[in-house]
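Need a sequence for this fold. Nothing fancy.
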């Protein structure tokens, strides 16, 4: 056995491993993205970039007549506070958390969606009738947990405003 040759081989191997280690953004980042999948979102930059920026929150009209709702749960509120959706159409809910684990629960329905920082939770909802559905947080998330509420306002389909691309539906809590 030639120890010198083995030593050279091992050192060359180590040197080759060091090169990719200096290329964090070219190797680690894409690899992490691949492993995390498309449901990952950075909770620290929610308000700055990506689909959860403020003017993208609320109800979006989809081409097939359904709607997509984007929300953020954070200590101790849901953003937007009031969600406007039409009755009788599929509602694709996308929600993430900016901090702790929360659970968006719609009173009077079976819908409950757990939200986790770093993950986009997806839920398919549909409301057969118009009405106001109070929502509460059902996961203890801190001192203000009991005050963490919002509302889904379901209006008849013909009363739901026609939204242009880029426009988001919203409502005001009374
Ligand atoms: Cu949020 Cu409890």
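Here you go.
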């Amino acid at each position: 056995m030639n120890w010198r040759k083995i030593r050279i081989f091992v050192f060359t191997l180590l040197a080759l491993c060091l090169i990719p280690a200096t290329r964090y953004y070219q190797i680690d980042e894409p690899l992490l993205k691949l492993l995390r999948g498309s449901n990952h979102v950075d909770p620290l930059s929610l308000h700055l970039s990506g689909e959860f920026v403020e003017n993208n929150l609320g109800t979006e009209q989809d081409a097939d007549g359904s709607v997509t709702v984007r929300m953020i749960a954070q200590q101790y509120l849901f953003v937007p506070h009031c969600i406007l959706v039409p009755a009788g159409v599929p509602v694709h809910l996308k929600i993430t958390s900016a901090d702790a684990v929360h659970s968006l629960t719609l009173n009077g329905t079976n819908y409950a969606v757990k939200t986790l920082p770093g993950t986009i939770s997806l839920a398919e909802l549909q409301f057969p009738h118009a009405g106001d559905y109070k929502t509460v947080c059902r996961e203890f998330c801190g001192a203000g947990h009991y005050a963490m509420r919002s509302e889904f306002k379901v209006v008849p389909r013909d009363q739901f405003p026609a939204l242009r691309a880029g426009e988001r539906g919203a409502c005001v809590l009374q």
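For context: The chain has a mean pLDDT of 90.
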